[in-house]
Design a protein that fits this description.
The complex is a heterodimer of chains A (about 350) and B (about 210).
Chain A: H1 7-43, H2 59-68, H3 80-96, H4 115-125, H5 127-136, H6 140-171, H7 176-182, H8 203-220, H9 245-270, H10 288-316, H11 322-351
Helix pairs in contact in A: 1-9, 1-10, 2-9, 3-5, 3-9, 5-6, 6-8, 6-11, 8-9, 8-11, 9-10
Chain B: H1 2-24, H2 28-49, H3 52-76, H4 81-86, H5 88-116, H6 136-147, H7 149-170, H8 182-187, H9 190-193
Classes of the chains: A mainly alpha (about 350), B mainly alpha (about 210).
Chain lengths: ~350, ~210
């Protein structure tokens, strides 16, 4: 026991923790990609991937092998260092963001006080992988694609920021664990529904905020219907035109990790994170590891639910035009979320009601 | 403690090296990328100081927004840096003078802090170091929104004026540009959107 509290022991434990989270995350991503394709296929009355493994379950691993054994071609005149750095930055940020994600009670790798700001900072840095990749390819098409991509991500970050502020105002903390704990004790405490029965009138504000967060998350991760930078049927592949082999796979991985991250964040901020949708006093008698699994189950369920909505939107909604996208971000979401911040702050001040967790 | 010292020297060294590379890089885009690295390691230094809120704000605002704008501008504008470098010798004295002033100021601040203690000992603590019960965000909020609310509002007004100025200078409505008015589309009914005509054969629909 003594050894694990020394710096060396602590380092070993933390590295093992990080490895565990990363491995589970990567496996989840592999099957999420498969699920995404299956849902997409199901809506279009196709079969989707069904060749590799039972029901095509191993499709993502086959794709991984294909990417890995392809030849890496670096375009002539490309800025080699930046070209190779861009996908690495993307994937590092996308995986690094999971360090603060409260996947179950006490299971977050790092429980920091500004967790939500950390996530926001990391996701706002994600733009760099895209800009650098597009620029370093030394070609016009990826460059234009990266500019469109970056403009879109920067635009929707603003409204995401304001929506996050409404949740922070209600929770009174920026610690993701405490935000989750504040939503314990039943689905009526989730911030999607105003956060607690005493705050029930806020459902008028918070429900639309949750929807705005969901849509902004779609735009932030360049998912359809906002996949303008890499619109499959119109453009080639946006910023990743000149990429192939492992670097392209890293971009793809980062994109999917970001989508799962946005789904997970939606689950934490609006759907109560690891909390069961009913009061759970029975947990007090359970051993810690079982409570952890219980939390992980609900967190994963909510994340998958949000991801499922994400995939349904992708297969159902037609693509936006660029000016419509910008209009939605700047003229609709930004003013709406700004007003919501003011109203929620006013509600907190004038009712004097404590947040659900205080 | 040793770990903190290692982290400090590592990040300080990275900051200084990146700062040097910003100036010396031949490619302007590389310059901006080095600048981003400098911002980022400066944020790391803030974390070491216990000012994690400031660190995250630095990353969100400078790395996530301001530097993206820099990168956009540098990539879009075809700046001829060879011609910019020509005046190097001419501006050298002025640059050195400014650098000397900056160095003198920094040395002054550093010596004052080391001899008389930082301002946080006398004022509201900014960082949640030892002995402070306030969290970062609370401390900064108290200073900004309670102690200096009027100055804060004035600064906001200045920014608002600057924003309006920029909009006034650049906004122009070109005549004859077709715009999508979503409201009109939503309010369209079969009555307003459709016209039933009964043309005679051999004639056009409208006159």
């Amino acid at each position: 026991m003594e050894f694990w509290s020394t710096p060396v022991g602590w380092t070993i434990i933390t590295v093992a923790h990080i490895l565990a989270v990363t491995v589970v995350l990567l496996l989840t991503i592999a099957f999420i990609i498969y699920g995404d394709r299956k849902i997409f296929a199901g809506v279009q009355a196709r079969k989707g991937p069904n060749v590799v493994g039972p029901f095509g379950l191993l499709q993502s691993f086959a794709d991984l092998g294909k990417f890995l054994i392809k030849e890496l071609v670096i375009p002539a005149g490309a800025d080699k260092a930046v070209y190779l750095l861009a996908p690495l930055i993307s994937v590092t940020l996308a995986l690094g963001a999971w360090a603060v994600m409260p996947i179950a009670p006490g299971w977050a790798v790092s429980d920091i006080n500004v967790g939500i700001l950390y996530l926001f900072a990391v996701s706002s840095m994600g733009v760099y992988g895209i800009i650098m990749g597009g620029w370093a390819s030394n070609s016009k098409y990826p460059f234009l694609g990266s500019l469109r991509s970056a403009a879109q991500m920067v635009s929707y970050e603003v409204s995401i920021g304001f929506v996050i502020i409404t949740v922070i105002l209600l929770a009174g903390t920026m610690n993701l664990n405490q935000i989750t704990e504040a939503q314990a004790g039943g689905f009526w405490n989730w911030y999607m529904f105003g956060g607690g029965l005493q705050n029930l009138p806020l459902i008028v504000i918070m429900f639309p905020m949750g929807v705005i967060f969901f849509i902004s998350g779609l735009a932030e991760t360049n998912r359809p219907p906002f996949d303008l930078p890499e619109a499959e049927s119109e453009l080639v592949a946006g910023y990743a035109v000149e990429y192939g082999s492992t670097p392209y796979m890293l971009f793809y991985l980062a994109e999917t990790a970001n989508i799962v991250l946005m789904s997970g964040l939606m689950a934490v901020l609006f759907l109560g994170g690891w909390n069961a949708p009913w009061p759970a006093p029975y947990l007090a008698a359970w051993p810690a590891w079982l409570v952890g699994l219980h939390g992980l189950f609900f967190y994963a369920m909510k994340t998958f639910f949000v991801f499922f909505m994400n995939a349904m939107v992708r297969s159902i909604v037609p693509r936006y035009r660029y000016d419509q996208l910008m209009r939605l971000g700047w003229k609709v979401f930004l003013p709406t979320s700004l007003v919501a911040v003011a109203v929620v702050a006013g509600w907190r001040v004038y009712t004097g009601l404590p947040g659900a967790g205080q | 403690m040793a770990l903190q010292a290692i982290a400090f020297y590592l990040m300080a060294a990275v900051t200084v090296a990146a700062g040097f590379c910003v100036v010396s890089a031949r490619n302007p885009v590389h310059s901006v990328l080095w600048l981003i690295l400098a911002f980022f390691s400066a944020a790391g230094l803030f974390v070491l100081l216990g000012a994690e809120f400031l660190a995250m704000l630095l990353v969100v605002v400078y790395v996530g927004a301001v530097a993206v704008l820099f990168l956009f501008v540098v990539m879009m504008l075809d700046v001829d840096f060879a011609s910019l470098r020509q005046g190097f010798a001419r501006y050298m004295p002025l640059g050195l003078l400014i650098a000397a002033f900056l160095t003198a100021e920094m040395v002054l601040v550093a010596t004052t802090v080391s001899s008389q203690g930082a301002a946080k000992d006398s004022l509201t603590p900014m960082a949640s170091g030892e002995g402070s019960t306030l969290s970062n965000a609370e401390a900064i909020g108290r200073v900004l929104y309670t102690d200096y609310i009027y100055f804060f509002q004035a600064a906001g007004l200045v920014l608002l004026v600057a924003m309006i100025g920029a909009i006034v200078l650049t906004l122009r409505h070109k005549p004859g540009v077709k715009r999508q008015v979503i409201m009109d589309q939503v309010l369209r009914t079969p009555k307003t959107g459709m016209k039933l005509v009964n043309p005679k054969s051999g004639e056009g629909i409208e006159g």
